[in-house]
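Appendix C reproduces, verbatim, an entry submitted by the partner laboratory led by Prof. M.T., so that reviewers can inspect both the input and the predicted structure.
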Amino acid sequence: MTSRPTAVRPPSSRPRLRLGILFLAVFVDLVGFGIVLPLLPFYADRFGASGVEIGVLVLSYSAAQLLLAPVWGRLSDRFGRRPILIVGLLGSAASYVVFAYADSLAVLLLSRIMAGVGGANIPVAQAYIADITPPERRAANMGLIGAAFGLGFIFGPAIGGVLAPVSTAAPGLAAAGLCAGNAVLALFHLPESLPSEERALHARRRAESPGGGRKLSVALLHPALLQLLLLSFLFTVAFSAMHPTFPLFAAERFGLDERGVGYVFAFLGVVSAIMQGGLVRVLAPRFGEAALIRGCSLFFVAGLLTIAWAPTIPYLLGGLSLLAIGFGGTLPSLVSLISRLTPPELQGGSLGVGQSVGALGRMLGPLLAGIAFDHLGIAWPYVVGALIAALAALVGLRIRQP
């Protein structure tokens, strides 16, 4: 399959507003996720949850995304991006209301599954950006999604920490209000990126080639797209390997408490947001996504190794900076290339599969990190992550710029 030019709609009179609303859609969803995630073990403990049950609660969000992201993407290809985005935001709002008033472990699990289903519409936002952005600018605007991730993880836990002492329901209701408010904003100010005539064109293409699901499967089996999906999986596994064990690592080696670890994660989120929301917008159009992936993969590996062997906090912050630059440069570039190599009528579906691959990586990474931490030592989750990122760097040498 060769790269084909993607039809781009005439720019809106308010393109920045459209991108801003998309940024808010992802940012608000991640803020809600960040508000709830640190509180989840405490809420589950009220119902006598075991460690395994708490683990299931945490993993259920990514598991729902793994299953539902391609479905949301394909629905957006058929019915348009705007209605799917709004439904997803309303679903997230409902999930946080359920979380706020959960009175049993089963209801708490239901709220996390609902949140994962609502949050699985991130590839729809990515497909919207692909619809309205020329290919050469796509990585730059895809970086906005990554910046929203980073900033959401910074502000979410801070908001949850402030609201938790107010009442057990306050954090969940705040997250629900943010999602509902953004759904209203999208309802009145976000136009559809796939006009009715283009959806009709896509429908005719599907009718001429029966079996849309089979067509997507065939497209994704192309070697170029398989390489990109493999890279996305490997980089996500390597990056997510640091999250579950880092507080213990930071406490044992540097004597950091919970507040100190929170500051370190905030630092990581800020650098990642600057990279994805700022520098990628300059570097990707100039050098191309393939070159950016190859270059940033070296920062990725160096960052994880520096963290593993950091003797002091300044070295640790340096390693986190390298890691944030590496991940912040690879992720939006990979999403952009997946979009550029996919036929227009399959954008949502292919980006949804990419999101599922990322969700699988976020489930496997912490598992590998835990095994390495228990059996090899406190620094080994980052060494293992560096080895996985190095493998990704070797795979990245084979990708070509469209």
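The chain has two domains: 14-189, 215-402. Additional entries are available on request from the coordinating office.
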